[in-house]
């Protein structure tokens, strides 16, 4: 009998949901295939008392899993795509981007109030510089504070503490059966999502003759095109997953429209633009959109982040 396929994953409830979903898909499409999970603790899981941006964002939630993939301890790695650095290690590749879940952010607030109705001087918790920058741009009268922990931990801190609200990915809430907790879904024209948000990354060793064809069956063409366009945008900006960069691609028939944003941590300056083109040229669109933002001063905004240790 063929040896089992081992999936490497983080141990949070959301990460396990994602890995279990991939396992179920493989076992359904390839009857008789045994798939097992291997839980791996990443640096991001170990350091919980420091804001993510101060830890040194690139690879914070994926590096240890990628190491296990490279040395053969696991055959497949399942990540949240938004946690993936713009560059991945030599010898690895994105084997599949399954059909994307909702990509937007969600606000959970006390009393179910939308963002525009929160009282002045209210305190909002988020782990993301991207979210913090856009909240400060929209509502400079609010105070934004770092908030670490898994989805359940962050919701518990809202319920128990002095926070007026928290902002997190709507996809995570939906996958964990917590969608009803959302007070408001923040559309992209209000808060542009992170690059890759809502999508899964199924990472494999490059040219793996056994695993490659199996994982490829999970790929969703339009989701891959959208994500790869966003990642090309991020890569050209030399950004990691913990910098104030946002990017979201939408496909309508043969056309792809990519919206991109770079902002200072206090919400100013904020540079945003969008670009459209044939969907099959997604990565070119991403690169060209990045060039437009760089020409408008995005490099000056990002310089402190790209020069920081661990960047």
SSE blueprint and pairings:
Elements: E1 5-9, H1 13-29, E2 35-39, H2 43-46, H3 52-55, H4 63-70, E3 76-80, E4 92-96, E5 105-109, E6 123-126, H5 129-138, E7 143-146, H6 151-160, E8 165-169, H7 170-175, E9 184-186, E10 200-205, H8 211-216, H9 221-236, E11 245-252, E12 255-263, E13 270-278, H10 282-295, H11 298-306
Parallel strand pairs: 1-2, 1-3, 6-7, 6-8
Antiparallel strand pairs: 3-10, 4-10, 5-8, 5-9, 11-12, 12-13
Helix pairs in contact: 9-10
CATH topology of the largest domain: D-Maltodextrin-Binding Protein, domain 2
Extended strand count: 13
CATH architecture of the largest domain: 3-Layer(aba) Sandwich
Oligomer category: single chain
The average pLDDT score comes to 93
Helix-strand category:
alpha/beta
Keywords:
single chain; alpha/beta; D-Maltodextrin-Binding Protein, domain 2; Double Stranded RNA Binding Domain; five-stranded mixed beta sheet
Outline of the structure:
The protein has helices spanning 13-29, 43-46, 52-55, 63-70, 129-138, 151-160, 170-175, 211-216, 221-236, 282-295, 298-306; strands spanning 5-9, 35-39, 76-80, 92-96, 105-109, 123-126, 143-146, 165-169, 184-186, 200-205, 245-252, 255-263, 270-278. By secondary structure, the chain is α/β, with parallel strands linked by helices. The longest helix is centred in the first third of the chain and has 17 residues, at 13-29.
């Amino acid at each position: 009998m063929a040896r089992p396929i081992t999936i490497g994953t983080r141990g949070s409830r959301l990460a396990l949901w994602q890995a279990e979903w991939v396992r179920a898909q493989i076992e359904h499409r390839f009857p008789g295939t045994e798939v097992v999970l291997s839980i791996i603790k990443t640096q991001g899981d170990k350091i919980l008392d420091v804001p993510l941006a101060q830890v040194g964002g690139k690879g914070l939630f994926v590096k240890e899993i990628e190491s296990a993939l490279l040395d053969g301890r696991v055959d497949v790695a399942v990540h949240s795509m938004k946690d993936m650095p713009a560059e991945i290690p030599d010898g690895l590749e994105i084997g599949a981007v399954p059909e994307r879940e909702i990509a937007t952010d969600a606000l959970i607030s006390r009393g179910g109030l939308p963002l525009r109705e929160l009282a002045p001087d209210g305190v909002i918790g988020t782990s993301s510089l991207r979210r913090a920058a856009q909240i400060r741009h929209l509502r400079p009268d609010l105070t934004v504070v770092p908030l670490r922990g898994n989805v359940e931990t962050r919701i518990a801190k809202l319920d128990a503490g002095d926070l007026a609200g928290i902002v997190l990915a709507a996809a995570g809430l939906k996958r964990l059966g917590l969608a009803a907790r959302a007070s408001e879904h923040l559309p992209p024209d209000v808060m542009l999502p992170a690059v890759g948000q809502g999508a899964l990354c199924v990472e494999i060793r490059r040219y793996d003759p056994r695993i490659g064809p199996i994982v490829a069956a999970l790929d969703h063409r339009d989701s891959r095109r959208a994500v790869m366009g966003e990642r090309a945008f991020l890569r050209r900006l030399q950004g990691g997953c913990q910098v104030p960069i946002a990017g979201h691609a939408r496909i309508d028939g043969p056309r792809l429209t990519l919206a991109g944003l770079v902002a200072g941590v206090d919400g100013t300056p904020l540079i945003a633009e969008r670009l459209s083109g044939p969907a099959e040229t997604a990565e070119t669109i991403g690169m060209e959109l990045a060039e437009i933002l760089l020409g408008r001063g995005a490099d000056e905004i990002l310089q402190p982040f790209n020069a920081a240790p661990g960047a």
